[in-house]
Write the structure tokens for this entry.
Amino acid sequence: MPTISYFLGIFIQMHWKDHAPPHFHALYAEHEAAYNIQELSLLSGSLPKRAHAFVLEWAALHQQELMDNWTLCRSNQTPRSIIPLE
């Protein structure tokens, strides 16, 4: 699963040929969560409140890039890196 961004201890990853809906995974310490790209909502799992807020803030800034990466992954292509949250 490629890491497409990393910030504040949070890894953002996508799976190749993953199931719908379009989503990405966020890993922070022992926590993992999946987020819907189109709705910017939590699909499964959980992160601490602060990490969750950072992930949503970052995703809102990069929603189109996330969708572009989703399309690449669905075609078994390597997703592009996305700049981290500053």
In short: The CA atoms of residues 58 and 85 lie 6 Å apart. The chain has two helices and five strands. The mean pLDDT is 95. The beta strands are 3-7, 10-13, 23-28, 31-36, 41-46.
